[in-house]
Design brief:
With 525 residues, this protein is α/β, with parallel strands linked by helices. It has 17 helices and 14 strands.
């Protein structure tokens, strides 16, 4: 087979994963073709997120960190002389997600702001160039499958669109949420929910074994202990348990709202709802709880106080803070070190719009309402509302809420699905830290291509129990908060069997130099 590999951005550990994937295909006898940039573009997500850094500095880093420093072979570099004939509207659609992320928009009035349109205009020539180059690369080399990093951001989206227009199967590749393994999206870019939903339909009704339930619990409970060190971002690691931040003692229902940042997902159809403005939806939902006579707290998302590259999130915080002030709700800003889990424990209901804090709420057996499509919108541990009819019909007083044990049960099933079925090749690709990985046997590429051709992920683990006894034993310990029984432990690694993915001889100093640099997305805003 003729396989195309494209990884424009040298983000850790993604380029390393892609090199390991490429070597697996080479060992199996396939012909590999690579597409890269090599300084050809004047703008891209990586350049804009690092602004005001100099182009030559960032392009040099990108080239030194890229696939050429791992592999030799059939590399094709982008030519800035090639341009597509796509309309500006089509080009802008490809850069929309990047433009939203670069401006970190949350308020709908900013969706067509000068900041968003400025980035679309800046990115338009690069998207046009990459789309045209990708089509030529695909056609000239008669490529049959493409493995592409991300597929969401501007120039990666251009490659995905070129593949789709030529009816070439394009599989997007990402780091997994909990660290180990590889994430393959067969049905679109890294935000696609199609493959996850297919797995959900297969497995979420099936009981977990005791070992599976213990593993699922460990992923969530590691967050309580702040040792979820393999998730891409750890938040509020110095947090403190505190009482519910009411102004005075009250018998009102306590509602905790934990909003998620939505800018990355705004342009993806799998995440789209009839609404893009969540504050009015929160208003309507809250009005259903005792006619709005509630004790409401909003927990600001910790990444609103962090820089993503050079872009801060203070405008998102201001947006939510103003809403809370107008309604008399307590607002905890992004840098407040109150432990979110302690707030969840004290509340009666949790409202989210996609936040992963739903996992902590679920394992604590809380009643949860989610008002957005998201990773867990097929799960049974919470009430999901994604249309106006369901919103109008919903009543917290007549809704059939699950018993606490069953909320925990279905939370465990989804988390296990997400961490151990949706993530693939966990015994081949092992995380030691968020960016440092070791690798075992090469990947089974026949299994990969079979998944692509069938349009269905084949999980590492397809086992399940015939009854709920294993789950019940784990749930009993969870309800007694025997947390130490679920201490999270990374996968054991036999040093003789696992190795680092090394760059070509003479270029290994690059990783030593990179490891001295902090992860830019963890800088405080």
């Amino acid at each position: 087979m003729k396989i195309g590999i494209c990884n424009f951005f040298p983000f850790r550990p993604h380029v390393e994963h892609m090199s390991f994937l490429a070597k697996s295909f080479i060992a199996d006898g396939h012909d590999l073709f690579y597409l890269d940039c090599l300084w050809a573009l004047n703008s891209c997500y990586n350049l804009e997120i690092k602004a005001p850094a100099l182009k030559w500095t960032e392009c040099a880093k990108c080239s030194l960190g890229g696939m050429r420093t791992y592999l030799q072979g059939n590399f094709t570099s982008i030519s800035s002389d090639l341009r597509s004939e796509l309309s500006d509207a089509d080009l802008d659609k490809m850069s929309l997600s990047s433009s939203y992320t670069l401006t970190r928009v949350e308020d709908p009035k900013d969706f067509e702001s000068s900041g968003v349109t400025k980035f679309q205009s800046k990115l338009r020539p690069s998207v046009s160039i990459v789309y045209a180059n990708a089509k030529k690369w695909l056609s000239d080399n008669k490529i049959q499958y493409v493995f592409l990093f991300n597929g969401r951001m501007d120039i990666t989206r251009a490659v995905l669109e070129a593949c789709q227009d030529l009816s070439i199967k394009c599989i997007t590749v990402e780091r997994t949420w909990f660290g180990h393994g590889l994430q393959l999206n067969l049905s679109g870019n890294c935000l696609s929910l199609t493959d996850l939903r297919k797995l959900s339909r297969t497995f979420l009704s099936k009981p977990l074994t005791k070992i599976q339930a213990q593993k699922a619990a460990s992923y969530i409970i590691s967050r309580f202990f702040k040792n979820n060190v393999l998730e891409w971002r750890q938040y509020n690691t110095e947090s403190k348990s505190r009482p519910w931040p009411s102004h005075k003692a009250t018998n009102k229902k306590k509602i905790l709202i934990i909003p998620s940042s939505k800018n990355e997902q705004l342009s993806h159809p799998d995440w789209s709802n009839p609404w893009v403005e969540y504050l009015s939806i929160f208003d309507k939902l809250i009005s259903k709880f005792d006619n709005g006579e509630v004790d409401c707290v909003v927990r600001g998302h910790p990444n609103w106080g962090q820089l993503i590259g050079s872009v801060g999130g203070s405008q998102i915080e201001t947006y939510y803070k103003k809403w809370c002030s107008e309604r008399g709700y307590a607002f905890l800003d992004s840098n407040d070190n109150t432990d979110t889990a302690s707030l969840i424990e004290q509340c009666d209901y949790v409202i989210v719009n996609g936040s992963s804090a739903a996992y902590e709420a679920g394992i604590l057996g809380k009643k949860i309402v989610c008002v957005s499509k998201c990773h867990y919108d097929t799960a049974d541990f919470l009430k999901v509302i994604t249309n106006y009819d369901d919103l109008d019909a919903f009543s917290p007083h007549t809704h059939h809420w699950l018993e606490v044990n069953d909320i925990i049960r279905h939370t465990l099933r989804f988390v296990y699905l997400f961490a151990d079925r949706y993530a693939l090749f966990k015994s081949n690709i092992v995380a030691r830290t968020t960016t440092e990985y070791v690798y075992g046997n090469l990947l089974d590429v026949k299994r990969i291509l079979d998944m692509v051709d069938l349009g269905q992920l084949n999980p590492d683990d397809i086992d399940f129990s015939q009854n709920c006894e294993g789950e019940d034993s784990v749930i009993e310990r969870i309800t007694h908060q025997d947390w130490m029984d679920f201490k999270f432990a990374p996968y054991p690694v036999n040093a003789e069997m696992f190795n680092k993915e090394k760059r070509r001889f003479g270029l290994r100093w690059i990783d030593r130099a990179r490891n001295l640099q902090p992860r830019g997305d963890l800088k405080k805003g």
